[in-house]
């Protein structure tokens, strides 16, 4: 496995992502951008980059908060996330900077790029699609789904995959239906997979607070990962 940290910048903020690939391919190969949950880029996202690299992709765990910035709990995490949630145009611009940094790497086949994200990162990759970004596909794991309000007339080019827990208290059924309506209006290629008896953060083994609405589900984790791999094989072929 070959790994290296990549610095890039947005509006004066220095950001640092982790790029991983298996080192076997002689030329550029498909790449997957990974957007982090509300705490910031952590070992969880870095491991996803390594797992995708082991499958032959370039994995790039991006940073949306700043080099070395990582929340230590719900209060800090919310303080880091809220300014970007409150300014979705700025969030979208920062995502575009991360995408440009990925495409600038020599290992990357620039026309074969997808993006995935977890929780806050799930919202991020949906926003990337909503801006009309030229990516093959985006996949949101237990992501927030609310519209940003600045992309209503923008056609969605990317195929969209949403992996959602039906009992997620942070994303009520009405939000899922609203997203279906939104994506249909853009003529997007979309699919939503909903897992029964499943809460928020179902892919994170450390999530174990049902009272807060978060709980790991091994079954939903395995099913959603298998669905992602099928999606990537289709979209990045």
What does this structure look like?
There is one protein chain. The chain has one domain: Alpha/Beta hydrolase fold, catalytic domain (Rossmann fold, 3-Layer(aba) Sandwich). Helix content is 35%, strand content 26%. The protein contains 6 helices and 10 strands; from the N terminus they run βββαβααβαββαβββα. The protein has helices at 43-54, 74-85, 88-103, 120-130, 173-185, 218-235; strands at 2-10, 13-21, 29-35, 58-61, 108-118, 137-141, 159-165, 190-195, 208-209, 214-215. The protein has an 8-stranded mixed β-sheet with strand order 1-2-4-3-5-6-7-8, sandwiched between helices. The chain has a two-stranded antiparallel ribbon with strand order 9-10. The longest helix is centred in the last third of the chain and has 18 residues, at 218-235. It is globular.
Question: Quick recap of the structure?
Answer:
The protein has 237 residues and is an alpha/beta fold.
